[in-house]
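Renewal narrative, Specific Aim 1. Our central claim is that a sequence can be written position by position from structural information alone. The example that follows is taken directly from our test logs and has not been curated for this report. It begins with the structure tokens describing the chain, in the order in which they were read.
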């Protein structure tokens, strides 16, 4: 198997993104990846990440591979769940309050922080628009996040999200209440749900 065939295999198995770590496991060095970029056979999309020129970059997968401690949330999670009327201009993600994401993520994304013990609350793996599984919050946790951070979000986005959630047949109000209690926002969540339901 040639080096390019190995890289195509890696690409096929990892949503189109080749990381330096995965390539190294298959015996392909950073120097080789760099040379392939200079030859136009690969494109560097982020530090340590490459795609073939004919591949479309899955931006959300790329972000999730850059830092293990992130979960897509707020506007991005609303979009992934189909309860937003617009594609986010800037992706939103949540990380633990005791973590510092890489500078590139802080520059590119809207970052929210939460207590470490709440980071995995409601975390699921959901398909990105390109079909790759990425970490995000379920719809009920997303609504808790939206209500908790309502002063940082646009009023229009906030109102659209909670109205859309209220009309969802698959909403789980018991789970919403459980998350709200864990996040210490039960009163405000109950207020908004009473108005809408």
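The sequence written for that structure reads:
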């Amino acid at each position: 198997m040639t080096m390019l065939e190995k890289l195509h295999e890696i690409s096929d198995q990892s949503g189109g993104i080749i990381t330096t770590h995965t390539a190294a496991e298959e015996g392909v060095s950073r120097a080789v990846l760099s040379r392939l970029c200079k030859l136009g056979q690969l494109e560097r999309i982020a530090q340590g990440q490459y795609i073939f020129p004919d591949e479309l970059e899955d931006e959300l997968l790329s972000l999730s591979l850059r830092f293990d401690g992130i979960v897509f949330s707020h506007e991005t999670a609303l979009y992934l769940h189909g309860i937003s009327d617009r594609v986010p201009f800037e992706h939103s993600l949540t990380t633990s309050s005791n973590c510092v994401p890489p500078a590139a993520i802080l520059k590119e994304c809207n970052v929210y922080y939460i207590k470490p013990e709440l980071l995995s609350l409601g975390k699921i793996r959901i398909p990105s628009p390109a079909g790759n599984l990425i970490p995000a919050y379920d719809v009920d946790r997303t609504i808790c996040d939206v209500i908790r951070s309502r002063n940082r979000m646009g009023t229009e986005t906030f109102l659209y999200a909670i109205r859309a959630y209220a009309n969802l047949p698959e909403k789980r109000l018991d789970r919403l209440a459980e998350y709200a209690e864990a996040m210490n926002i039960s009163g405000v969540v109950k207020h908004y749900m009473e108005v809408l339901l």
